[in-house]
Design goal:
Number of helices: 13
Largest sheet: 9 strands, mixed
Bound molecules: flavin-adenine dinucleotide
Shape: globular
Structural class: alpha/beta
Low-confidence stretches: none
Number of strands: 23
Strand content: 15-25%
Oligomer: single chain
Radius of gyration: 22 Å
Distance between the termini: 17 Å
Mean pLDDT: 96
């Protein structure tokens, strides 16, 4: 079990190096790790897994009902959705099948709903239902005035995106994958039947390569001599409302999509908050993850119409993520047989949902370009911490607290996170290296005070952890 974040890289030649430990790269590493004869390296520029787009999305486990029929996106989203729902139940990733309502606010949108139901049918999704205004308001009593009807999509779910990426990476590491953090790949040289990766921490050698570098997939492709697409970041800003707003909405409330995309939604989260967003802004800068006054004002304007009472609630946080748009409405997944490499690029709006579908597809492409996968086996058992609102926090479980009093010592009072959970996260196979990483693993500091009360104590625990000392 190897996770490195500093020092020289191993001299061995790996069978496969996966560049990028977002939800897609981590899913690919996990899928490859089922083939126990392979030596795999998962190489990540940041200090933690899931630090790119994968940490800042809308957290919906889509059905793929609205994808372009026949596209790779449609196929892998539907496949990935089924796989991830099964996997989430197995390892304890929080998921709730709350369902979605595509709300029509004018006659034109209402007229489009049957067409969208037809599209869902063509995507193999047969459970949609048309609702009139009365049925819609009965399902969502706090919806703003003027809604004329909706298309119900009962399979749409909400999920914890952080636990998803972490579960994949943890499973890969437990099965023998080496995870190298703080390790940006700056160049790739072909040396006979090997790729020599020059990384910030030295050289790394691998026979096969997967480019899962998200927003930088075009840059990494260029290192291999390919210029098939350019990534233009499309920013999505979001507002997180306090858990007191949780009772206002029961479903994922979607707009009727336009040519510009899926539009702004209101949705519950698996932690009990309410999300409003995202915006869609094309930008030149791949680091532009700031929230803006204009973006937030646009969101509150839309939110006021959808769910007026939401705007009376407290805002807990704002954040923004960048979609990897490439000027084409489909994924840019392609094998380069002559280089024993596969690119998984252009994973824009559905990558969280599709991650396990993409991983299976990419593994198939690696086999097609010559990788001998060998037999697939079972992965070690894994159970992720229960972060969702439907699970009882450890501090509320008297048996657990009696057996281990650390679970009864609450450090983060907003989210009821105990010292025992923080201890467990710091001792996990893929431990956090920052307060933000600890928050994604435990919810500590993610509540309404945003760490104002517990921040110092959390930082102290983190600083004193063996992981931190080894960085
Ligand atoms: C606002 C928004 C809302 C979304 N909502 C949803 C949703 O509800 N449901 C859904 O399914 N999807 C959603 N998505 C899409 C989903 O979040 C992405 O498709 C997914 O996170 C992409 O994962 P990735 O692994 O390809 O990219 P990333 O998470 O960005 O991972 C790429 C990784 O590669 C690393 N890297 C880059 N260059 C190098 C290098 N040279 N060397 C080493 N490492 C490198 C980066 O540090 C990064 O960690 C949304 C996206 C956004 C922005």
């Amino acid at each position: 079990m190897t996770v490195t974040s500093s020092g020289p890289l191993p001299e061995e030649t790996y069978d496969v190096a996966v560049i990028g430990a977002g939800v897609v790269g981590a899913a690919i590493a996990r899928e490859l790790a089922r083939h126990r004869g392979l030596r795999i390296a998962l190489v990540e520029a940041a200090e933690d897994v899931g630090e790119g787009t994968s940490k800042a999305n809308t957290a919906i486990l889509h059905t793929g009902f609205d994808a372009a029929p026949g596209s790779l996106d449609a196929r892998l989203t539907a496949d990935g959705s089924r796989r991830l729902a099964r996997y989430a139940a197995e390892v304890g990733i929080p998921v709730e099948r709350v369902g979605a309502l595509l709300v029509a606010w004018d006659a034109e949108q209402l007229a489009r709903l049957p067409e969208l139901a037809g599209k869902a049918e063509r995507n193999g999704y047969h459970d949609t239902r048309l609702l009139d205004a009365d049925e819609l308001h009965a399902l969502e009593p706090r919806l703003g005035p003027g809604a004329l009807g909706a298309l119900e999509v009962p399979g749409e779910s909400i999920i914890c995106p952080w636990t998803t990426t972490l579960a994949y990476a943890t499973h890969a590491v437990l099965a023998g994958t080496d995870l190298h953090l703080n390790c940006p790949v700056n160049g790739i040289r072909q040396d006979g039947d090997r790729h020599e990766l020059s990384c910030a921490r030295g050289r790394l050698s691998a026979r096969y390569l997967v480019n899962a570098a998200g927003l930088s997939a075009d840059t990494v492709d260029a290192m291999l001599g390919h210029h098939d697409f350019t990534v233009t970041p499309r920013r999505g800003q979001l507002i997180v409302f306090d858990t007191f707003a949780g009772d206002l909405v029961r479903h994922i409330l979607l707009p009727v999509p336009t040519a510009l995309g899926k539009g702004v939604l209101v949705a519950p989260t698996v932690y009990g908050n309410v999300l409003l967003g995202p915006t869609a802004e094309d930008l030149p800068d791949k680091r532009a993850t700031e929230s803006t006054a204009g973006g937030l004002a646009a969101l509150t304007g839309k939110g006021r119409r959808i769910l007026p009472a939401l705007l009376d609630e407290e805002v807990t946080a704002v954040y923004a993520g960048l979609r990897a748009a490439t000027g084409q409405d489909d994924y840019r997944i392609r094998a380069h047989p002559e280089q024993r490499a596969v690119t998984a690029g252009g994973i824009r709006s559905t990558g969280l949902t599709a991650s396990m579908g993409i991983a299976a597809h990419v593994t198939g492409l690696l086999a097609e370009v010559g990788l001998d996968l060998g037999a697939a086996g079972e992965l070690p058992p894994l159970r992720m911490p229960p972060l969702g609102r439907t699970a009882a926090r450890p501090c509320r479980q008297s048996g657990l607290v009696a057996a281990d009093p650390e679970y009864g010592t609450v450090v983060c009072h907003c989210e009821l996170v105990s010292r025992g959970e923080i201890r467990d996260a710091l001792a996990a196979p893929v431990p956090p290296r920052s307060p933000a990483g600890l928050r994604r693993r435990t919810r500590a500091g993610a509540g309404r005070c945003q760490g104002a009360w517990c921040g110092a104590a959390l930082r102290d625990l983190l600083e004193r952890s063996p992981v931190r000392e080894g960085v």
